[in-house]
Amino acid sequence: MKRRDILKSIPIMTLAAGIPGSIYKYDAFGKIKYAKKSIDYFEELGVDKVINASATMTWLSGSLMLPEVLEAINSTAHDFADMYQLQDKAGIKIAEMLNCEAAMVTSGAACALVLGTAAAITGFDSEKRKLIPNLPGKRPEVIMQTNHRYVFDQAITTTGAKIIEVDNEEEMHKAFNKNTVMALFFNAAESWYGIKNNISHEKFVAICKDHNVPSFIDAAADVPPVENLFKYQKMGFDMVTFSGGKMIRGPQSAGLLFGKASLIEAAKLNYSPHEAPIGRPMKVNKEEIFGMYAALKSYLEKDHDKEWQQWMDRTAKISAILDQMEGVETKVVIPQGPANVFPTLDVIWDTDKFKISGSQLYDKLKAGTPSIVTSKTIKNNMEFINVGVVLLQPVQVSLVANQIKKALKSSI
Ligand SMILES: *Cc1c(COP(=O)(O)O)cnc(C)c1O
């Protein structure tokens, strides 16, 4: 008997209960049923569960998705969608939520940098879309402040563009020519390098407008405060990116690109599901788009003051445990921003009493059970640790404090 005949001969109710050999099980209504039995995949692969007492770092899997994000992912996994329509419709809603012309979901802020630059290079030219990053002629140019150069600007040069460095407004004015396609502002340069912007946000935007060239701001890690999600488009930046997998707590692999409609539309043309422009190898899946949308919605709706207070309570709880120790001191530190503006705790100890350096304590906590990742910090030429509280699960707060206490004690 041929396979087709076998299928024909199986009564319809049996089919509904599951096609033999199929990975799916169906309920009486023909909907896919998933196994209830839960498997500990960490255990199955021998991967350590890490307590993140630091910040939203990609190597530590970014952030933890909120239950509503997981719900959006799970509940949308059973049906197909036209990805063009999904990207368009999600973009319309996100743009409404962020008071801007247009938006899209990208695979992280790094992808948004690639797509935004590609959009600035190609516009709606399909020939250019096919050729980038190897366009004939002079390389497209992107202007940046010299002291804004950073690791992620490789996402700009990935498109074939080259970066032109300027140090002040006058140099910036002069840097524009017919090859200039965009200017990039790295919002957290001040946080990362402890420098001042040579050219202010407002001036940067104004100069770009004078030359009729789009401006792009990378604000990937720059919420909280939530207001930052609205600030830069209002200032006049043509494109803005934020990571989805940082404090917005969407999928780690997602991000937002938003701003001027013509640029976002051009960015979409350089992206999946089109085959196969520069952005195709950076696709986001259907569930990530729904998940990113759900995360943003939830982030905008949340009570940020209350959450801030919960974070402060966590630092107080850890301090209460560590400050009992003679020779140990804790101090709440809130970075000035614009990146990673949330409470953390410096833990400082008398190194005459506790014979352990900051790096050694960091390593010991990381190698411990459970593994805890903190941050190393340097104060007055001495190494200490800094404890991040915003990514801890509530039950982990005193655990982290007690593990630090234990590790310090064992160094006496
Ligand atoms: C995290 C980060 C990125 C990359 O973001 P992803 O969402 O991980 O792609 C880019 N720029 C800055 C400033 C960042 O902090």
Automatic annotation (TrEMBL):
Superkingdom as given in the UniProt entry: Bacteria
InterPro entries, sorted: PyrdxlP-dep_Trfase, PyrdxlP-dep_Trfase_major, SelA-like
The keyword Kinase appears for this protein: no
MF GO annotations: L-seryl-tRNA(Sec) selenium transferase activity; transaminase activity
Keywords: Aminotransferase, Membrane, Pyridoxal phosphate, Transferase, Transmembrane, Transmembrane helix
Pfam families, per the entry: SelA
Cofactor: pyridoxal 5'-phosphate
Residues annotated as transmembrane: 102-124
This protein's record includes keyword Transferase: yes
Residue numbers bearing the N6-(pyridoxal phosphate)lysine modification: 246
Family: Belongs to the SelA family.
Protein name: Aminotransferase class V-fold PLP-dependent enzyme
Organism: Zunongwangia profunda
